[in-house]
Amino acid sequence: MLSSYAFSDLLRISIFTGILVLLLSFAQRFLRRKQSTGTQLLGPPNPSFLFGHLRLLIKAPNGRGEIYEQWAKTYGPAYSVAGPLGSTRVVICDPRALAHYYSKETFTYVQSKFTKVLMANIFGRGLLYAEGESHRRQRKALSPAFSNASIRKLTHVFYDSVYKAKAHWDSIIQATPASDALIDVSEWMDHIALDSIGKAAFGHDFESLDGKSKSIAKDLHTLGTSSNGVVGQVIFILSAIFPSLLHLPTKQNLMIRRLRANMGRIADELLERNRQELDVTWVVMLLADFISVKAETNGGSLAMSREEILSQVFTLFRERGQNLNTNTIYRCMTQIVYATPGYATTSGSLTWALIELCRHPEVQQKLREELLQEAGNDPTFDQLSAGFPYLDAVAQEVLRLHPAVISTTRVAAEDDIIPFSRPIKIASGEQVFSLVVKKGDTITSPIDCVNTSDAFWGPNSKIFEPERWLDPNGLTGAKDLAGYRHILTFSDGPRMCLGRHFALTEFKAVLFVLIRNYSFELRDGPDTKIESLSSFARRPKIAGEKEPRVLMKFLLPLVLTSLLLVLVPFARRLLNGSRTNATKLLGPPNPSLIFGALPMILKAPGHASDLYNTWIQTYGPAFRVPGPMGSSRIMIFDPRAITHFYSKETFTYVQTKFTKIFVANIFGRGLLYAEGESHRRQRKALSPAFSNAAIRKLTHVFYDAAHKVKANWDSTLDGASGEAMIDVQAWMNHISLDSIGIAGFGHDFQSLDGQSSTVVDVFDSFASASDSLVGRILFLLSPVFPWLQHFPTRQNRLIKKMRATMERIGDEVLARNKAEFDGKPIAPEDKSIIGLLGECPPSLKRIKFSFRFPAKAELGGTSLAMTREEVVAQWALIELCRKPEKQQRLRDELLQAGSSDPTYDRLWSGLPYLDAVAHEILRLHPPVGQTTRVATEDDVIPFSEPVKTASGEEVTSIVVKKGDTVTVSIGYTNRSETFWGPNAKEFEPERWLDPEGLARAKDIQGHRHILTFSDGPRICLGRNFALVEFKAVLAVLIRSFSFELPHGPDTEIETHPAIFRRPKNAGEKEPRLILRVKRLE
């Protein structure tokens, strides 16, 4: 034991040694600064010789970003900041300087001794510790484990973890007497991140979500959220000068040691479990560690082949297990758990995301609406990556505002010159465009400052605004910045976070499940004060809480979320209606707050053409029509306005959310779903299959189907004295199904042969099914709440069944056409659309191969789309029955053409009255009655005649604001007396043969001056296909049979409300069209 004198001497020696170290350190810095020829910069005055500015920055209430930005405004894009004990560092905020700095990381700019010791203590001497060539080799070895292909296989792990959390939360909420519960989401996000990374990275379930691994989970959570005591903070600040201080037993350092011990025990288990068979990820990680060890042993060089390295790895593992021991595994585990895929980034970012969504309930609602549009299973990796634009925008905005690591500080390993994009003012008053950096200088990139700087992100840079990522001009200033998506959260250059895609996918998967199932509020409402706790990663906590907790209310979604979904959009519409500077238009009064005028329009006959005509007479060629829940849409009826509208489709005017879900549910996410450039590419790829040359080869298919019907009817008439009552609707359905099956995909459904199958049964049911009362109400509300289309109504169940059946047939089509996909020659006899696609020019091959999914997803959609053409055929027979003289005139023309079936060219242009009948039917009975789109940007629509506004002013153009809904009524335009004369509503094929018959209609664009096939970029690609099929079928039937309505020309015909309106005999419960059919001799 030491005597009191000896202890006193030892204490004096220790104090003297400490003072001597301080003086020598200060003298060294003073002399180096005097000798330095680096650029002398301006900077804020030093507030403390002992701590410099470091203490001020650590205690900043809103993070360091605002302080750094204020200094940048005062001293320019590069300035000097004081550190402890007279040290200094250079802070750079210029995009060109930052790009240069990050590009030279691990070689010119390396981690300081302080950072190296900190990394080694926490993460071991692995990837995060390495520099230069050693870092490059380790990163290369680890990269395959974080590729998209690897993450794609691991996505289910993220869902497993979040659903486990969801089950716990459901239990908590159900056990709470009130309708909500307070839950500390911060700790739960840590558990989700820990369990996900454990299973995904090295096959170990920490089971922290099940209440196990309490010590590790608690230590990781506390390590990420706690700060040291006063002594610990002083030691941490001085560690920047004396890195050895990081080995002192402070609170955090003791926690790190305990964490290492616990991780070590798990490492022992993993080592034993993996002795016989190593997981691929483990081989990559262990190989990276082995490379690091060997490279350091050989002085930084490694002259070994990949095969030799692998051989030695496995030899060492099997024979000794020395290099691949617990410490090796621990280093891999810690860098994977806490750093590489961003344990702190993921859990912290998820907590910040929920906070921001609580602060901005309208953003939470908008995100929920997007996520609820996805039906069925949880989204795949590819859907999470690119299928949810608003989710992606929320993720990027959270990462921008709340980076887990707020700065990057490095030491120059050699002299360097950093270029700047704008001049910097130096201490001498001179302005220069580059900064001389001397070996040993410290450089800092303030990540949180750059991510939220007004200079790059505009005046709303500090505000949570996900919309900036959806606006093409939203990132104008930030595009000068390097980094992932122009933010520095994942760093940049050689040290850019290797696990960024892992972290992003986990973030999106977790948020997808939580936002779809729960509504979130901060404990004390949107204005709850949140503090930023700076530790190893910046984490949030409620102000005043001793523990780093973020308490939120979780509301059961069944009732409360439904109310939100109703009230928030309604309130938003009221606010938007009062703020918008779009042209204020007149319009009919709102008959229903819930449904608007929609039921009135849907019930009106003839696609509401008479109703629209009344409104036009009252309000003019443009007016607003009230929709469900306070929404409205602009309706335009002027030819110049209509032309402008259609010309800007897929870019300025796109499908509404309601239409997108509707199209995706029925037709798949193909051509009909796509917008903009994607739509253009897909259309270009498909165009050869619908050319005149291609259809010419397929004409025989239409005749085959029509002659099958003729043969069946002949058999029926043979036993009925040449006359019978036949339900022509069912036969028209089967003609369309068999024709598109053979012509489109080389698959014969054989429905005309009486072949029963799931497809035929579902197709028949789907073509005529109408929904229940509940289904109709949901459909009426769907334009406002598109996700209602996912409810299992009768029609939606039929759609799902149809899609599943078509998927199976799609598999057969893909298998049979594999030769085409492999680039082999197409069989000469294969004249189907999918076969003809194989003959497209080489320049389109890449597009074609990326478009393989139509064989499966669009097979059902194309077949369903063809039901529109069979509806037109039914209306043709009805109109010819109402006008027997026109039926006879058509028959005379067809009989004069000869006994054989007309050729494609004859059908196209050699039978003028058949062509006139076809176009008159298409004019009077368009299967789709209107086109409704939403504006993606502000626009001005010109008119050919004045429009009277709500103020009484007359204008020749109207202003449409982004988000406005615009509708063109195809049914009205096709039947308008303004364009088609006083007999516009009459079946008069002769108008198409009279040179003056279309005089006013020529102002209308579209196919032959009708809008049945739409117009502009979305004009129906298969219109010629449909016309030739229609003419071929009508030619065979009219030449062979005469048709009459059951009770004469005045027989009442009703419209059956289905997805595509179809005719039926009045009084029939089922949508049947019974006609008297007579065989002609």
Automatic annotation (TrEMBL):
Bilayer-crossing residues are 230-248
Q: What is its main location?
A: membrane
State the superkingdom. Eukaryota
GO CC annotation terms, alphabetical: membrane
Q: A GO molecular-function term, please? A: oxidoreductase activity, acting on paired donors, with incorporation or reduction of molecular oxygen
For this UniProt record, give its keywords in alphabetical order, as a comma-separated list: Heme, Iron, Membrane, Metal-binding, Monooxygenase, Oxidoreductase, Transmembrane, Transmembrane helix
Subcellular location(s) per record: Membrane
Would I find Ribonucleoprotein among this entry's keywords? no
Cofactor field: heme
Q: Which residues form a coiled coil?
A: none
Q: Which PROSITE patterns match?
A: CYTOCHROME_P450
Q: In which pathway does it act?
A: Secondary metabolite biosynthesis; terpenoid biosynthesis
Q: Where is heme bound in this sequence?
A: 497
Indicate the family of this protein: Belongs to the cytochrome P450 family.
Q: Which PANTHER family match?
A: CYTOCHROME P450, CYTOCHROME P450 12A4, MITOCHONDRIAL-RELATED
Q: What is this protein called?
A: Cytochrome P450
